[in-house]
Amino acid sequence: MKISRRVVLQAGLSLTAVQASMAAGSPRFKAIAFDAFPVFDPRPVAALAEILFPNRGAELINLWRARQFEYAWLRTVAENYADFMRVTEDSLVFSARALKLELRRDDRDRLVKAHAELKTWPDAAPVLHKLRAAGIRLAFLSNLTPAMLQGSLTAADLDGVFEHVISTDQARTYKPSPQAYQLGVSVLGLPREQILFVAFAGWDAAGAKTFGYPTFWVNRLGAPAEELGAHADGDGTTLNDLLAFTGA
Q1: What's 33's DSSP letter?
Q2: Which domain holds residue 69?
């Protein structure tokens, strides 16, 4: 797990002060805003795609994921907003058609609905409870709709763990738009420097850092950093690395 000096400087603290804080067990941030996928494991959606389309599931999921975010960003640029549930369904329909796969209505509904009943990664619940016990306020800040987020919270038995469940649907836009990241500041009522943003994707880490959040990248898939002119202040492969980074 890597920690950068940049987050120290942006928080207005000396390196010695941060080290002392970490040694004393005091958290370095007042709140943490999570993207959905450092907490929720999306792999069951891919497994379902393989069940429904044997030997073609990986091909479908790769195109679907790429088109899913392309549609979100294209709708943002075009100012033609639709929520992430609609984007997820539309991009699935396109991807199946592009791959010449017969997508039955029932199968389409199952794949889309799977995004609203995700379980957590194995390390998630213990770390979240430790962060709360340390007095850190927890929130989601995700492109997923409120129904998708709440459905997965209930499926994962995490109701009540997060103080706020923030969907960019509230701003009718998507990350990495600054208006999307601003929701965390507005809802939590804290300066951005006191909110640690936790990303799953490299582009989200870059977007949050550009906005001004101290940023930690949970790089579970071992992806290379994006070349977008901004890098996370720390990164690791699990939420246990995040726990160490916070000093909680």
Answers
A1: E
A2: 43-116
CATH at 142 = 3.40.50.1000
Q: What's the order of all strands across the beta sheet hosting 234-236?
A: 2-3, 234-236, 215-218, 195-199, 31-34, 137-142, 164-167
pLDDT digits (tens, 9 = 90+) for 7-52: 444 444 334 444 444 445 567 899 999 999 999 999 999 999 999 9
One domain for residues 92 and 210: no
Active site residues: 35
Tell me the C-alpha to C-alpha distance, in Å, between residue 224 and each of 143, 213, 217, 221: 22, 20, 11, 9
| Residues in contact with 223: Cβ distance below 8 Å, sequence separation at least 6, in sequence order | 201, 202
Q: Per the structure, how many domains does the chain have? A: 2
**Predicted structure pTM score:** 0.88
- Cα(169)–Cα(187) distance, rounded to whole angstroms? 14
pLDDT in tens, 44-92: 999 999 999 999 999 999 999 999 999 999 999 999 999 999 999 999 9
52 and 35 both lie in a single domain: no
Q: Are residues 126 and 206 in the same domain?
A: yes
Left if phi > 0, otherwise alpha if psi is -120 to 50, otherwise beta: which for 229? left
The secondary structure of residue 221, as a DSSP letter, is T
| The two structure tokens encoding residue 41 | 């494991």
∠67-231-248 over CA atoms, to 5°?
105
